[in-house]
Amino acid sequence: MQIIYWLLVALMVVGIIGAVVPAIPGTSLILVAIIIWGIVSHSFMAIKIPLIVTAIVLILSIGVDFLAGYLGAKQAGASKWGQIGAFVGFLLGFFGLLPTLPVGGPLLGILFGPLLGAIVAEYIYCRQLGLAIKAGVGIVVGTVVGNLIQGLLAIATVVVFLYTTWPQVFGT
């Protein structure tokens, strides 16, 4: 039983990483691990609190993701064009379709795609390079801050799970 517990905790650590790194499942992966533990341990009462906390954190993470990107864009003066460009840049970067990044794969594309996409789209919209760069950086900074907040929320979720299930597994 302890081996399964540690494997699920390792899966939760991947979920924490996924909360920070785009395109890797985050809080939803933690939620799945908690549900698996409830099934394996035959004790959904033991995971009631972690399950509720994780569901709330999942909803908060979605909100933080949208809000952080929006606030970063708004603070930097980005238009809707910049936000759309960032999204398109993310997709192109994720699938490795950025011609400026022949190496590095999806991780570099995920990092640079939104920045380049926002700058290009904002420049097309306003024809001012300085404003376009400022908007692109603002969108990326907002997204990074949002991802860090999501990571902290994911860590809190795993801590709640460990705190509530540790006595069940190890009897201490």
Q: Any key phrases for this structure?
A:
single chain, 172 residues, mainly alpha, 83% helix, 0% strand, elongated
Explain what this protein looks like in three dimensions.
The chain has 172 residues and is mostly helical. The protein has one domain. Helix content is 83%, strand content 0%. Helix 3 packs antiparallel against helix 6.
Could you outline the blueprint of secondary structure elements for this entry?
Blueprint: H1 2-20, H2 27-41, H3 48-76, H4 80-94, H5 105-126, H6 129-170
* Helicity, as a percent range: over 70%
State the low-pLDDT regions, or none: none
Q: How big a fraction of the residues is strand?
A: under 5%
Major sheet details? none
Total domains, how many?
Answer: 1
Give the strand tally. 0
Structural class: mainly alpha
Q: Would you kindly provide a brief summary of this structure?
A:
The protein is 83% helix and 0% strand.
